[in-house]
Amino acid sequence: MVTRRTDPAEGRAALSAWASAPEEAKRPVLAPAVRHTLELFAEEFPGGAVELRVPPYAAVQAISGTRHTRGTPPAVVETDAATWLALVTGDIDWADAVSSGRVRASGERSDLSELLPLPGPRRTARAARAAAGQNRADGQNSADGENGKHGERA
User: Fold this and answer.
1) Residues of the chain predicted below pLDDT 70
2) Peptide linkage before 46 cis (omega within 30 of 0)
3) What per-residue confidence (pLDDT) applies to 141?
4) If one looks up domain 8-131 in CATH, what number appears?
5) How many C-beta neighbours within 10 Å does residue 122 have?
6) pLDDT number for residue 29
7) What pTM, to 2 d.p., does this model score?
8) What backbone phi and psi angles, to 5 degrees, belong to 87?
């Protein structure tokens, strides 16, 4: 069970602000957006087999399997804030992020391709962009692929 440290409303507001102007987002927007989405990921996929790191903002353990308590975990995924937010909102897919070097993933269960994007953050980003009259960075509009891989989970 993940202990929520980020106020969900603050996290959604920060994610919306990032989605509306990702290139302008600074630490006061990135920090709560990243923490909120990492907490959502860890709630959706509980466990301790993979450590997700988005320095300097946060790290969580997620995905069922072997749990580590000290030292380097058996699987690590590390990326920057912009890439993490793009992954959870569906702006970039896992394979592209890994092949471009924007994500470093090692160990068993570190392939998150089937787990991302997260539906809640994806909807939040789409709603923010629709309110601002924008399309997704990849040129798809907010009506494309609404259900994603995970259906309509919160």
Assistant:
1) 1-4, 67-70, 135-154
2) no
3) 43
4) 3.30.1050.40
5) 23
6) 98
7) 0.83
8) -65, -45
For tokens 């919306």, the residue is 16
Quote the pLDDT of residue 36.
97
Q: How many residues does the chain have?
A: 154
φ/ψ bin of 41: left (φ > 0), alpha (ψ from -120 to 50), beta (otherwise): alpha
Q: What are the two backbone dihedrals, phi and then psi, of residue 74, each rounded to the nearest 5 degrees?
A: -65, -25
The token pair at 145 is: 């692929």
In the block, tokens 């789409």 appear at: 126
Using the structure block, give the residue that is written with the tokens 């009506």: 143
Strand arrangement of the beta sheet that strand 76-79 belongs to? 58-62, 50-54, 76-79, 103-106
Residue in the block written with tokens 């995924």: 77
pLDDT value, residue 69: 65
- DSSP code of 61? E
Contact partners, residue 101, CB within 8 Å, separation at least 6: none
pLDDT at 74: 82
Distance from C-alpha of 13 to C-alpha of 112, rounded to nearest angstrom = 25
Domain boundaries of the chain, sorted by first residue: 8-131
**For residue range 32-47, what is the model confidence (pLDDT) as tens digits?**
999 999 999 999 999 9
Round to whole Å and give the CA distance between 135 and 91.
11
